[in-house]
Design a protein that fits this description.
heterodimer, A: 113 residues, mainly beta, seven-stranded mixed sheet, four-stranded antiparallel sheet, 11 strands, B: 112 residues, six-stranded mixed sheet, five-stranded antiparallel sheet, 0% helix
Chain lengths: 113, 112
Amino acid sequence: ETGVTQTPRHLVMGMTNKKSLKCEQHLGHNAMYWYKQSAKKPLELMFVYNFKEQTENNSVPSRFSPECPNSSHLFLHLHTLQPEDSALYLCASSQENPGNTIYFGEGSWLTVV
Amino acid sequence: QKEVEQDPGPLSVPEGAIVSLNCTYSNSAFQYFMWYRQYSRKGPELLMYTYSSGNKEDGRFTAQVDKSSKYISLFIRDSQPSDSATYLCAIKGNQAGTALIFGKGTTLSVSS
């Protein structure tokens, strides 16, 4: 079991649906991240939260809405997605310090139909 | 020029071979260099971590950083079928709040 847990592991949703991805970290970290991983592309950083405050939003469309109620939990709310949003969504956490590494969850496989 | 370049492969080798995986980067301010391993349908897991230049060895794995050439390498000795995975290099600057920048990943297949 990793220190970062993501649910659900697999999700199929229609373009008009609303769903949420959940992430929980058990490592005592103070920074949490959402990454998107598509085939043949590098990992794309979507959002960063430090001490529950959003510090980075990499021009992500508003159909993706993050929420960080506390430093252990992170959500990604999904609404009216497009088929090209189908990807592996990875949550990660770290201690906010330049040299600290980030630890990933197993990811949520999203398919938009 | 992209910040991190990594040949996606695929790379196929026989069991027991020495594998060399590489990345180049463009920004000389990067100080932290990591390699992640990602098995199919799993999240990336940290494999090696290096600060600044030099070598680091862990079992069959050696990470090498050459800051003068902006080149990082991961060597796998006596490769095993269980090493078959995608290997991602990741690089980070020295300032608080900077995020990891990843390469595309190299897919490695080790045949028995």
